[in-house]
Specification:
Largest sheet: 8 strands, parallel, barrel
CATH topology: TIM Barrel
CATH superfamily: Phosphatidylinositol (PI) phosphodiesterase
CATH architecture: Alpha-Beta Barrel
Oligomer: single chain
Helix content: 25-40%
């Protein structure tokens, strides 16, 4: 069993404005191996970093992100940053590359829950321009999106994300079958959904295991005790301290 890698979730959302350049600077100064972030497409097809499909919660604007051009997005301000705009994927990837870390990239869907048809080629173009695709772990909740990423290839790892309800509905065998169908090399679940039996079955099938929601001492410690490949945490300094202990 190797070291459980730490992914700073949205750059460390408990500590800094999530998915902001400010958060990324702080997170990349730490000993966490990965930086996790989410991307949507602007109206003119440029990947921008934002968790929500809408701008309301994190910026001084309202409405769907894909209703704004890249130029318009660069004029917005992320709340709590002192005036920084939402970062583009190109800007975030450059920060990760310079820090020598792994990019953990989630491909998001639009405000109606529909995948962006052009998000994969747009992200690949950005990452390839910086020779970052092989240092990027790509993730998606939508099986067809991950299947497309698998077909493109060249990633560090491909992760299928499942919420609790579909995971419980399909069970371990169903999840293994789905992961194989879409080319996933790792399955990501909420930390509370994992147990030793499920992990053993996934590993026996050649599939890695990871979790998000590891945001306090109990859940972070649980991730380590289970021997997960990676945990995504909103408090990376705490995860680093606990792993060292």
């Amino acid at each position: 069993m190797g070291l459980t890698e730490i992914a700073s979730h949205r750059g460390g959302a408990l500590l800094w404005p999530e998915n902001s350049a400010d958060a990324f600077r702080h997170a990349l100064a730490l000993a966490a191996e990965q930086l996790e972030l989410d991307v949507h497409l602007s109206a003119d097809g440029v990947p921008f970093v934002m968790h929500d499909a809408t701008l309301d919660r994190m910026t001084d604007a309202r409405g769907p992100l894909n209703g704004f051009t890249a130029e318009a997005l660069r004029r917005l301000r992320v709340k709590g940053t002192g005036g920084e705009p939402p970062p583009s994927l190109a800007e975030a990837a450059a920060m990760v590359r310079e820090a020598g870390r792994v990019l953990r990239l989630e491909l998001k869907s639009d405000a109606a829950g529909r995948p962006y048809p052009a998000i994969l080629p747009a992200c690949c173009a950005v990452l390839d321009a910086q020779a970052m695709r092989e240092r990027t772990t790509v993730m998606a909740f939508e099986p067809l999106v991950l299947a497309q990423a698998s077909a493109v290839g060249g990633w560090r790892r491909r992760v299928l994300l499942l919420e609790a309800r579909p995971w419980r509905g399909m069970g371990t065998l169903g999840a293994i079958a789905l992961a194989r169908t879409v080319g996933a090399e790792e399955l990501g679940l909420p930390i509370g959904e994992w147990d030793a039996a499920a992990i053993a079955a996934l590993r026996a099938a050649g599939c890695g295991v990871s979790a998000w929601g590891c945001n306090d001492a109990a859940t972070i410690t649980a991730g380590y005790a289970l021997g997960l490949d990676a945990i995504a945490t909103d408090d990376p300094p705490l995860a680093i301290r606990l792993r060292g202990a």
